[in-house]
Amino acid sequence: MGDTRECDIALDSAALDELNSPEAKALLDTIDSLRELQIDKIIDLPQIVVVGDQSSGKSSVLEAISRVRFPTKGDLCTRFATELVLRRDSKTKIGVTIIPAKSSRSSQHFHRTSFNKDALAEIISEATEKMGIRQTGFSQDILRVEISGPDIYPVTLIDLPGFFHSETSDQTSKDREITKQLAEHYMKQPKSIILAVVSANHNLAGQIVIQEALKHDPKRERTLGVITKPDLAGSQDEKKCFQLVRGEESKHKLKLGWHVLRNRPEGEENTSADDRDADEEKFFRTSAWPRFAPTSCGIRSLRKKLSRALLELIQKTLPGVIVQIERNLSTRQHDLDQLGKPRSELADLRAYLLEIAERFQRLAFDGVDGHYGDEFFGDLYDDRETRKLRALLRRLNSAFYATLVTKGVGRKIEWEDDDRISSHDGGFSWIRDGDDVPEYLKTYLHLFDGFREPTIISESDLCEELEELAAANQGTEFPGLPNGKLGFQLFKMQAQPWRGIADFYLDKVTDFAESFVEELFTHIIGADERTVNAILQFCVVEFFEDKRKVLKDKLQEILRPYVSAYGSTLDAEFYATLSSRTLEREAGRIASLLEEKFPAAFTEKGGKGLTRENVELAIRNAENARAGEFGTDKVIDMTMTHFQISLRTFAQNVMNLAVENCLISDLPAILTPSMVVRMSEERLKELASESKDAQVERQRLQYEVNMLRAGLEKCQRSRQHERKDKISASQSLPERLILDPSWVVAVEDVSVTVVYR
């Protein structure tokens, strides 16, 4: 802000005092104290925004209200937003700043040590030069003039460029858009009183400001209409103005009503403010306009009307201001709590890290066990699934096993009697029935899309291939018996994809677990980025680098029986599975041959014509049909039986012995309280020392928390005071008011105003 030394300020305090009232004083002091606490930088506070079409007399209205000179000549028309911010303060201060529209540019500060009623025009002229717009063009930059002093009435007045229809060499379509954007920025704020200025000597329907005000205040609750230049109005325009002020124009009826001002005519810009007010009073006494009540004409009654409107707006919005303050206070207090207490001593560092370790260990166990009660895990519908670790692992495990079942085989055998010999589906009904993948599993199954589908070989082609291999590798087995070693070689060929799929699965599990841990530490530590990064670097990264090596070694250990040694199965399970498979195969063959040789047995009721000799013949034919010199059909049955059992065992071992035992169960041990207790001074400083940025952030947050608490207390006291006033006012009003119907009675809190119409 500008010069903070004692400054020379000369303003018309009497005129500004007319914006005040005993009822408003306490509330306005509260609002001003909120601004003094800089709460207006966090929430919107009430202000008066003056809008209108070009040459409607906006700046003259502002000048009349504040008695501060605004440029009103055509060559100095308003080309940017000007904020005149008046504040009560124990010291007199002046601050003049150009706030750039783009954050990439820095603010420009003016050096001012004095301010009087004529200074604003000079400041605006200087700002116009600095913005580089001079005589033409408009700017989205904002000129803010802040005046503080012990006798200054607190109010914020906003002067905006006027709306215009036609484009000229000085006013382009881009300028028109800038004008609308600036007006929208201020008018849409629910705590802005819109002072909509219309000129009496122009058709009301043709003035843009009416529609713009309606757009941003559709209920017409915070718009006050001001009619200027009544001395220039023709008879038709004058009639329309009468209707507006009397509230007879339903389309443009405003809750705050309409008001008429007669500003300085052209050529009398240099007359004094007192002369201006005297001329206005004389005009309304001697022209057709006295037909209106004095409360609807003249600058003095407008100030009172604005004071009342501002008071009502503050009373109406104060509960919302309190809610905003409470919300901002809660957010900043949470951020402050996340930073923790200041830590300069070794004991502070250890205590801080102990708290982090305790929370981490507890929440890590919750994630591993699937207990999602803490806010970190979100609610039932939260889409941050990486935080719900156990649920994620279960879906990833299903996707891993489904991929092994569908893609974890060297070659997929196409059985000649597919109806009898069921393919291995791993228990997944959607694989067995050929249905779509369940929705909950799609994302995880897509992770394995990079693995190719197995090639297909028919059962007969595989038998021929095995017969050739068996002939080339015969041993001392009896003719017709299978070569066991041939079966193990076939098994190894079929199990080749296991390593790649399992290796990829372990990488994904590790990635997800690492993301879970990183998110958890970030959540626990909060805004202290230095400690977050230090723990991730010195604890988390090292932990997962080690675990990736451990998992690779464990996978090698689990794979060894299947690639370089004898991977045995339980004899009983193998025999039962093989017998079932053989029975399915033989039953299929017999049924097929019976249907071929004796079709009547399948078409005639009761199998008529089928004899014992026929069945024996069919069985002998079946044996002869598939009898082979090398027993390759049995090799295939034994190999696929061994493959099916081993696949399930392999998947379980990878999930349990590798993932659960070597990784997931150790996550809560990444940082434990016992580790912190034994931690060296050097490591403590590495992990828990506070950065300068964190110290600055804590100071900022603490300042804002204190500021918001003070503001909240002021608002709550003002609200309680307001309630008491309303109670006492309602108690002091007479039970009945009996008045002549020709009088209009208005009851306002504690006073009764009677106006004769």
Count of DSSP-assigned helices: 24
Find the structural class using helix and strand composition. Answer: alpha/beta
Gap between N and C termini: 50 Å
Kindly give the count of domains.
2
The amount of helix comes to: 40-55%
Number-wise, the strands total: 15
Low-confidence stretches: 1-5, 622-627, 732-757
Overall shape: it is elongated
Q: Can you summarize this structure?
A:
By secondary structure, this protein is of the alpha/beta class.
Write the topology of this structure.
Blueprint: E1 8-9, H1 13-17, H2 22-36, E2 47-52, H3 58-66, E3 81-88, E4 93-99, E5 108-110, E6 114-115, H4 119-131, E7 142-149, E8 155-159, H5 173-187, E9 192-199, H6 208-216, E10 223-228, H7 235-246, E11 258-260, H8 273-286, H9 299-339, H10 346-369, H11 389-407, E12 411-414, H12 429-432, H13 439-446, E13 455-458, H14 459-472, H15 484-494, H16 498-525, H17 529-563, H18 571-597, H19 600-603, H20 612-626, H21 632-662, H22 673-677, H23 681-688, H24 692-732, E14 743-748, E15 751-756
Parallel strand pairs: 1-6, 2-8, 2-9, 3-7, 9-10, 10-11, 12-13
Antiparallel strand pairs: 3-8, 4-5, 4-7, 14-15
Helix pairs in contact: 2-9, 2-24, 9-24, 10-16, 10-23, 11-13, 11-16, 11-21, 15-21, 16-17, 16-21, 17-21, 18-20, 18-21
